[in-house]
Design goal:
Layout (H helix, E strand, L loop, with lengths): L2 H12 L25 E7 L4 E8 L4 H4 L3 E7 L7 H14 L6 E5 L4 H5 L6 H6 L6 H19 L2 E10 L1 H12 L6 E5 L5 H15 L6 E8 L3 H16 L5 E8 L8 H12 L6
Parallel strand pairs: 3-4, 3-5, 5-6, 6-7, 7-8
Antiparallel strand pairs: 1-2, 2-4
Helix pairs in contact: 3-10, 7-8, 8-9
């Protein structure tokens, strides 16, 4: 036998058996990917704030084709990484299940919350800790003259407006209600930081309520189990609201003892939606 043939035979005999050939599994195509779009974000130039500001807007699903006008809820701390998504989600839920009226949600993003949302303080410790604090009047002008003007000229609004905020934004809501009550029809203050400046805003509320008109408006207040620093000024505010009853004012205070400052907002906001925007009885 030729050496080359012998070598080939030995190779075949000594080689390990071949594994059964398997057909490779087909590679699954990657699932199609599309972005989930929740609302629109606008870069609004602001002469008052001296900068471009983020404004986020959620429109009801039928807005484009309905031709109708809608109430507007303005949400403080309304940035995309703040409270815009979970509040606009409540508006969408109410639309989908038919429990609340359709509403336009406008999120006003905060940049420096103590600068924008807190009224001036004379407390030297607060001034030292927060040197930029105390320009809520300027931010209120921005909301009234630039944000509301942009929304009212760009979207089909019904003229019915509300302002919502939590914590320092809740303080801003209460201050706006007391100082500029005509700015909005309804005010929602969740766990407002009335402790700011030693509770001075709550102490001043009696005198400010005496100067208000009897125009119809709504004030919704709520507070969790957040200790005496938060509760005491709320007690002062609600006492002044009782003592200076205004026929046109519908106000409520709802204690939420099972909630903390960190957990109160979403449920309180849902209750506010149901109170402000109930579906008409059929």
């Amino acid at each position: 036998m030729k050496p080359r043939v012998l070598a080939l035979l030995l190779t075949l005999v000594l080689a390990p058996p071949l594994a059964h050939a398997q057909t490779p599994a087909p590679i699954a195509a990657a699932p199609a990917e599309t972005p989930i779009v929740i609302g629109r974000s606008y870069a609004l130039p602001s002469a008052i704030m001296g900068a471009t500001r983020e404004i986020n807007i959620w429109l009801p699903p039928g807005y484009a084709d309905s031709g109708k006008t809608y109430p507007v809820l303005y949400v403080l701390d309304g940035g995309q990484d703040q409270d815009f998504h979970h509040i606009s989600g409540l508006a969408q839920l109410g639309t989908v299940v038919g429990t609340t009226r359709d509403v336009i949600v406008v999120g006003i993003a905060s940049v420096d919350r103590r600068d924008e949302l807190a009224l001036p303080t004379t407390d030297p410790d607060l001034i030292a800790r927060y040197p930029t604090q105390g320009h809520s009047d300027r931010f209120r002008r921005f909301v009234a003259e630039e944000v509301q003007a942009f929304v009212e000229t760009s979207f089909r609004t019904s003229g019915e407006t509300a302002l919502m905020g939590e914590s320092l934004a809740g303080l801003f809501v209460v201050e706006t209600f007391l100082k500029e009550p005509q700015m909005f029809d309804a005010y929602v203050a969740v766990s407002p930081s009335l402790w700011w400046d030693g509770g001075e805003l709550a102490r001043q509320s009696g005198a400010q309520l005496r100067d208000q008109s009897n125009d119809p408006r709504t004030l919704i207040l709520t507070l969790g189990d957040e200790g005496p620093e938060m509760q005491a000024p709320m007690d002062v505010l609600t006492a002044n609201l009782r003592d200076h009853a205004l026929p046109g004012l519908s106000w409520s205070f709802t204690p939420r003892p099972t909630e903390s400052h960190a957990t109160i907002y979403h449920g309180a906001a849902l209750d506010a939606f149901r109170q402000l925007y109930p579906e008409p009885a059929k």
